[in-house]
Amino acid sequence: MVPDGTGIKKDNDRNADADTKHTRIAGRPMKAVVCRKYGPPEVLSLAELEKPAPGKGQVCVKIVATAVTASDCRVRAFRFPMWHPMILMFRLIIGVTGPRRPILGLVLAGEVESVGEDVTKFKPGDQVYGMTGADFGTYAEFKCLPENACLVKKPSFMSYEEAAAVTYGGLLAGYCLEKGEIHRRKKVLIYGASGAIGTAAVQLAKQTGAEVTGVCSTANLDLVESLGADMVIDYTREDRIDTGERYDFVFDAVGKDKSSKLKVSCRKALTRSGKYLSVDDGMLKSRTEDLHKINELMESGRFRAVIDRTYTLDQIVEAHCYVDTGRKRGNVVIDV
Ligand SMILES: NC(=O)c1ccc[n+]([C@@H]2O[C@H](COP(=O)([O-])OP(=O)(O)OC[C@H]3O[C@@H](n4cnc5c(N)ncnc54)[C@H](OP(=O)(O)O)[C@@H]3O)[C@@H](O)[C@H]2O)c1
């Protein structure tokens, strides 16, 4: 799975590393997973790259845990719908034959190792977590990012693994629910309630006082119920919403690639002023305030991390194979 069986592929060609943030010499190498071309999980390999040093306004985080998200797999395989009007633009932006930023990974939880000039919010030793967004780069031992990135202090009651697990789903579900004006919705249906975004969406929607129905497959009914869903529907057994129930908000948390007869029916089960939103409708934003909210909710036991499996960095190919199945429950965490 990894090229030389040792798990480490030496990569001394600094100029070949398109990720300029990782080309600064800071005295020691770091372990990272690189993706030099688009393809199956096996295109990922472990490499030794130069440890980055924080620039002005940046913090350098020693990563303890990251996560393999559906977005990472999508970029690794360049799995974007060919009909998309922006497909050529995506390719030019993300990279023509492989990702311009060869270190994938969006989520990080770790300790601030050093800070650059003018950094005021963080200091070495702070435990932090967050998301890098289009900058990627978290399948590595170190990552430098602006102190104003989507990064917050990690409370001590939260483990690094939990922090890595709640970030992606928590941020993206938080953004989508707000876009769907969740505060005005009494009856909410979450289609795909057992994935990273779905498990977070169920828990966040419950906080608003909404009555929440979660849709998932048989094996995940108990999980979704345990997250607070008032009702669960099994899309492998039900083809339509035949209870006559109408929803103020239907959120498709798995996206346009995954469907069922029930999903089509959910779309129609809206009240007159109801709203339907797919996680694939437009670009999602990550906002620091949503992580602060997750800190509060977790502290009071109203939100929890859903971790399906944990792998190590040198098992990244296995982790991607698993996430590629499209059936993970919640989140897949990587111990760095
Ligand atoms: N537009 C954007 O900017 C943006 C950004 C980030 C993510 N996304 C998209 O958001 C989607 C969701 O991400 P995620 O990480 O939450 O996904 P995920 O964790 O990979 O989703 C896994 C879940 O999908 C469920 N599933 C599989 N087939 C299904 C079906 N036919 N109907 C209902 N559920 C099904 C599985 O549950 P069961 O086993 O119970 O079926 C599993 O729990 C991804 O497709 C991602 O690309 C979009």
Properties at a glance:
single chain; 336 residues; Quinone Oxidoreductase, Chain A, domain 1; Rossmann fold; 2 domains; 7-stranded mixed sheet; 5-stranded parallel sheet; binds NADP nicotinamide-adenine-dinucleotide phosphate
Q: Classify the helix fraction into a percent range.
A: 10-25%
Mean pLDDT: 91
In terms of structural class, how would the helical and strand content be classed? Answer: alpha/beta
N/C terminus separation: 18 Å
Unreliable stretches (pLDDT < 50, length at least 5) are 1-26
Beta-strand percentage range: 25-35%
CATH class bucket of the largest domain: Alpha Beta
- Count of distinct strands: 15
Shape by Cα distribution = globular
Write out the distinct hetero groups bound to the structure.
NADP nicotinamide-adenine-dinucleotide phosphate
Supply the CATH architecture of the largest domain.
Answer: Alpha-Beta Complex
Short summary:
The chain has 336 residues and is of the alpha/beta class. The protein is built from 8 helices and 15 strands. The longest helix has 20 residues.
Explain what this protein looks like in three dimensions.
This protein is α/β, with parallel strands linked by helices and 336 residues long. It has two domains: 9-158 and 305-335, Medium-chain alcohol dehydrogenases, catalytic domain (Quinone Oxidoreductase, Chain A, domain 1, Alpha-Beta Complex); 169-278, Rossmann fold. Helices cover 24% and strands 27% of the residues. It has helices at residues 70-76, 87-94, 160-179, 196-207, 221-226, 261-268, 288-299, 316-324; strands spanning 9-10, 29-35, 44-50, 58-68, 107-115, 127-131, 142-146, 150-153, 187-191, 211-216, 231-234, 247-252, 270-278, 307-312, 331-335. A hairpin with an 8-residue loop joins strand 2 (29-35) and strand 3. Helix 3 (160-179) packs across helix 4 (196-207). The chain is globular and about 65 Å long. Mean pLDDT is 91; it is low at 1-26. Bound molecules: NADP nicotinamide-adenine-dinucleotide phosphate (NAP). NADP nicotinamide-adenine-dinucleotide phosphate (NAP) binds at residues 69-71, 74, 172, 192, 194-198, 216-217, 220, 235, 253-255, 257-260, 279-280, 283-284, 326-329.
